Amino acid sequence: MPARVSVGFIPVAVSLQVTLAVAADVFVSGPIGRPVAMVAVAVLPVVRGLVALAMVAVRPAVLQPVLVAFIEANAARVRLVSRITAAPPTLEDVTRFDRRGAGERKPHQGGHSRHPVRVHRASLAPSRGTGATHAGCNGCAGPKSLTWKQLLDRARPRQGTPDVLSDASPILGRGARTPLMPNGFFVGNELDSATRKPRGRLELDPTDLLTHGLIVGMTGSGKTGLAIVLIEEALRQGIPVLAIDPKGDLPNLLLLFDRLDPVQFAAWVDLEAARRQGQTPEQAGAEAAAQWTKGLASWGLSAADVADLRRRYEAVVYTPGSRAGVPLGMLQSLDAPAGSFDAQEEDLRDEIAGIVAGLLGLVGIEADPLRSREAILLGTLIETAWRKGEGLSLERLIPAVADPPFQKLGALPVETVYPRRDRQALMLALNNLIASPSFEQWREGEPLDIERMLHAADGRPRLSIVSTSHLSDAERLFVTALVLDKVKTWMRRQGGTTQLRALVYMDEIYGYFPPHPANPPTKRPLITLLKQARAQGVAVVLATQNPVDLDYKGLANIGVWLVGKLQTAQDRERLREGLTGAGMAPAVIDTMLDATGKRVFLLHDVHRSAPVLLESRWAMSYLRGPLTREEIGRLMADRVSATPAAPAPASDASAAPVAPAGLAQSFLKHFGAEVADPCLLVKYAVRYKGMEETVGVRAWPLDAASAAEVFDGDDLPVDEALLSEAPPPGVRFAELPAYLSDRGAMRSMEKAIKDRLPGELAGTVWTDPLTKVTSLLGEDRAAFAARLGQGAGSPPVARLRDRLEQKKGELEARQRDLEGRRTEKWVALGSAVLSNIGLFTGRKRTISGAGTVVSKNRMEGTAEARVEALETEIAELERELAAHGSVDPARLQSTTVVPTRTQVKLLRYGLVWVY
Questions:
Q1: Which residues fall within 8 angstroms of residue 184, CB to CB, at 6 or more apart?
Q2: Res. 96: pLDDT tops 50
Q3: Alpha helices in 513-583 (DSSP H)
Q4: Residue 706: φ, ψ to 5°
Q5: 699 has which bridge partners?
Q6: Among the ranges given (332-341, 380-389, 633-642), the one the predictor scored with the smallest mean pLDDT
């Protein structure tokens, strides 16, 4: 198409395109409705293609307004499609536009797509020359002509988020950006990959970091310096930073010398390095001051910029487990969270999982949160307490391991899942942690409050550096996991935003985010942050010496890569794989990786059209190198002295020591003392000969040298109803005897109880020789006599009364029998007399009836004897009954009774703390 025709056609075509877009945009909600709008949508691509053909022979200056209208019309079409379909535009909608007319572009691996962004007219203002200028670019000396390629670079689709998606996707949406974004992070210069000469100042859009960042480079590549520059830029723009520092380099951020005075530098130079160079501290300080002044000046910075940065934020170096910096109360994380547990159940369960994994890591137990019975038990204990609104300490957690406040873990009893004898190892491991001399320092310090760590009391952003360089590997994992879990919980409570709200940086991530199958407690919160934090405006930047350290899931969620000099071919190959998957040509990758060096990085930003070489700027902070604990103490001396340490709960006042496995413990208030002493609690049943079975509970102080000697002391009667299972608050606990921790201690204790208990149960009883009644064991003579005197209704007295009544009844019967016998005797005698009258008349020669009389007389005598015997027996019974009414204690006799081993049953035994 001739140029003249093209130029003449462009305004008409563009006007037609814009008119169609606007008309369709109006009609879609008007009376004509959807059909007209659909026709407009169909015509728009045709007109757009004609415009593209007309552009071929047209000069760049003419195309500026055309390109603007062209892109705006395309944006209108996308909005129109979204209104027609009654749904927000998707990536598929916006990726249909291709500046070369090559059709749709497919998203590259890693989840990012190429699609258009709105280009503001201000960024394409026409120039007086043949090209175009950019206006308002930070760092430019003045108006600069843009080439045709640069102009198209501005209008071309960029990887990232277009304006038209801002309403539909708060995570991805962001405003328009240019290669030199005002208010960006001034991280250095862009270098020409061929000549390695500066092309100009490079600023990183803060919102680019919402896709998170990765800094990779071998030792000496300058990655720590680049990270410090990145943090400085965030703080300059009022963005708070939380940095986790396992190496000790990041406290350099506090070495901001606002006057660039040699005296300021002299106080912090490396004395050993100065000595090797034959310099005094003053000479080394002067050299460092000159070096920093010159280095900053080469980047357009001065002491005024350093002073301005220093005023903008507050810096704190936290040193968990140490008083060098500001102590951080890591164990306060067991305190119950504010608010309802159910309302934040998911977050709190994740936090509990991190706490448990960290604790188990401290004691050398690698636990799977879903399979490890140690992790399941501890997690359930913490959740049970938090649901009740109760906080925990390790001192309270350890006894709960022995006696959980629940009966089941899942569907099975606790003893089936995790027997008490097996729990002993976990209790001892946690107890050893408490017994560590440095344990007290983990209790004190500021609470682990992320909001407080990100914002100072005066409203300024805060730089919070959690230094873990002084800790062991297990302790570092514990601290880092807790901090990341707290960040995750805090992040989920924030509202959505497209702006950068906070930056989380972690230096030297080796071992904290390893590839599968390794699963340290830090891995889960890191994956969650990389996947979800961008929605709440939280950026995560990680640094490592080689990319093999990172889990592939982490790499897939990182959009800004800063790659420095790599040490091994394996590292280069891993980077090639990642960058090739991000859409870069392998040859370009190799060329740019070859160009990296000290402070020179390959910058791959998914929001930019192509990777660039970056030379990092000079840091305003004095890069002194890793600081020791003593040097951190010097840095934070004023802060530490002004910050009152949180009171540490006394270990002996918060919970009882751990009871040995198999020995349940309880608590008994008996004396009202402040110190609770350990005692052996024994519940038994004993049946003395001739007595009923009785049940008793006694306690013997555990102050003897051995288990067998425990019973040599005085016992204490115990009311079982007064025993408590909860440790009393504010009571200190004495030490347990050493023999309880010996292997087989419980077997020895049980044997001693069975051998010695019968002898300990020997006692004195009183017997009444009159009534044959025996006193209760331990009942004294007077009480027994009084009980006998008051026992008219007692069984012995009742039996006497029954016998007396019986004898009286027998007496009456015998008396009647006696009267009958007497009558029979006299009748027999009369009959005998009458029958023998014939002797006197001579008609009878023998005497008859004499034998009957004698027999009856004998029977009468027998009846009289029986009556007399009953009367005597009744009199004796009456005397016995009278004796029960007034018992003389002197008549009672004492008897010692000792049960045999077979007469004693051991019901249970345990540990009781008596106070």
A1: 138, 203, 204, 205, 206
A2: no
A3: 523-532, 552-556, 569-581
A4: -150, 170
A5: 681, 716
A6: 633-642
